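User: I'm putting together a teaching handout on how sequence relates to shape, and I'd like one worked example. Could you take Phosphate propanoyltransferase from Paenibacillus elgii, show the sequence you're using, and then write out its predicted structure as tokens right after it?

Assistant: Happy to. First the sequence, then the structure tokens directly below it.
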Amino acid sequence: MKQVPIGVSARHIHLSKEHIAMLFGAGYELKEMKALSQPGQYAAEETVAVVGPKGRFDKVRILGPARSKSQLEVSRTDAFALGVNPPVRESGHTAGTPGIKVIGPAGEVELEEGVIVAARHIHFHTDDAAKWGIADKQELTVRFEGERGVTFEHVIARVSDQFALDMHIDTDEANAAGIKTGDIGVILA
């Protein structure tokens, strides 16, 4: 049985070094609040506000370290509240996505693009993927047994020797199925 831990991903933002400087001041370095499931990734102490055409969220957690491009990841419910219509995309695939205003303590940035609803995915270390015969970018089906059991289709495999085994879904998906971080899914195909 191919079991995978599930992590529930709340709204968050990844920022480029350039945007960190614009929002927090020149030379600013994010401070790690807690490590995440993926090696080297962390939730920063810092937060920002994001403002869309219809609404805003304050205290949106920044995930570090800095990325090459800034990107806001929201659930579909969050998108409705902000008044944007982002596509479901893999992280980093932001071309043609809506933009958003980001406000920090030292300034603000108008992202021209970068708002996505993250595609559900599983991070596989290369050893785990090889053991289970799973290829990078392969689409998988994952079953969650529980009071509100559900089967997730179109789960993208992301394989790297930099990853640790973990499935990521957003809060809408988790709430619909009664899933919490640490619950276990079973890869069916």
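A couple of points you could highlight for students: The radius of gyration is 17 Å. The first helix runs from residue 17 to 24.
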